[in-house]
Amino acid sequence: MKRYTNTEDSAEDLTTYWGRLKHFQNIISPANIFYSPEQLSEYGKILENVDKDPSIRKQYTDQQLWKMRYVVDSNIHPQLKEPVNILFRTSTFVPVNVPLAFGLAVLPPTPINQLLAQSANQTYNFMFNYCNRNASNVFSNEMLAFSYGGAVSSAVVGSLGTSWLFKKLNAPALLIRACPLFGVLIANTFNLFFARYPDFQKGIQVFDDETQEPLPGLSKEAAKIAFFRTLVTRYILPLPMFIPPIVIYYMKQAKCYPQGRAIGLALDLSLSGFFLYCGLSVGIGIFPQYLKVNPTDLESQYQNLTNSKGNKIKTIVFNKGL
C-alpha cells in the first residue's frame, strides 16, 4: 500500500487494470454509507491537515488514512465539500440501483413496465449526474430540462422500438427480454453527448506527462478521444444488469428456480445486486482516468513543444471524465 499523501489519488496503482478495479471497488463500496455527517467532517479535517501536521500522521496508519479518504470521496462533493444527498452518492449507487436493475432486466418487458422502469432509471441517472456535477459547469434550467426529457424519451422509444422490431422478426425470447438494454444504451449516448457538448466546442485542458504542466490552449481532439473512451465504458456498464434474466431463464429451464414467490424475489434482487456491483467496478476500470496520447494525435499546436525542463514533449495526458 502506498504512503498516504493528499497528492496521491489512490492507494492502488491506477496504471494497471487490477489497480483501477480495486480502487473503484473501494469507492462504490456500500460499506461507506454508514458514516454520520460529523464523522465525514472529522475525516475531512484529518486528511486536510495530515501533510501539514506530523503529529496527526503519528496517530494513524496509512491503511486508516486511505480508508478515510475512500469514505470521504464516496460521500462528499469534491468541490462543494458538502455531503451529497444520500441517494445519489457513489457509496449508495449499487443498493439504490438494485430495484432499478430489477425493473429493467428482470420484470417482463411489457410496454408499461418499460415505460416505468426506463423513466425511473433515467430520472435517477439525471439526479445522480446533477448532484455529482462539476460545480464550475453551469447549465440553464432549459438545458437541464432538455437533457432530462431527451434521456427519458430516447430510453423509452429505444426500448419499445427494439421490442416491437424483435417481435416482428420473431426473435428469440432472451433477445426480446434484452430490449430495455437498447433503450439504456441510446439514453447513455444522449446523456454523454449533452454533457460533453461544451467540450466539443471549446476543447479540454491537456498536460505534459513528464512535468504535469498545463499546455497552452484547449484541445478539441482530446475532447473527442475522451468522449469515445467514456462512451465505451457507458456501453459496458449496463451489460451485467441483463445477466440475471439469463441465469433465471436457465434455472427455470432446469427446474431449479425456487417455487416460493418471496424466495424467488430475494434471489432475483440478490443476482441483480451482485452483477451490478461486479459490473460497475469492472466497467469503470477498463480505461485509466487520465489518458496518455502522442502529440501527433492532437492538434498541430501540441507538436514539437518542449517543457520547462527543456525536453521535447513526447506524451500528453488529460482527464477523460466518468
Explain what this protein looks like in three dimensions.
The structure is a single chain. With 322 residues, this protein is mainly alpha-helical. It is 58% helix and 3% strand. The chain is built from twelve helices and three strands. The protein has helices at residues 17-27, 37-49, 54-59, 62-73, 93-106, 111-131, 141-168, 173-177, 179-202, 220-236, 243-253, 261-284; strands at residues 207-208, 290-293, 316-319. It has a three-stranded antiparallel beta sheet with strand order 1-3-2, with no helix packed on it. α5 crosses α12, α9 packs antiparallel against α10 (220-236) and α11 packs antiparallel against α12 (261-284). The longest helix is centred in the middle third of the chain and has 28 residues, at 141-168. The protein is globular, with a radius of gyration of 22 Å. 30% of the residues are buried. The model has no long low-confidence stretch (mean pLDDT 84).
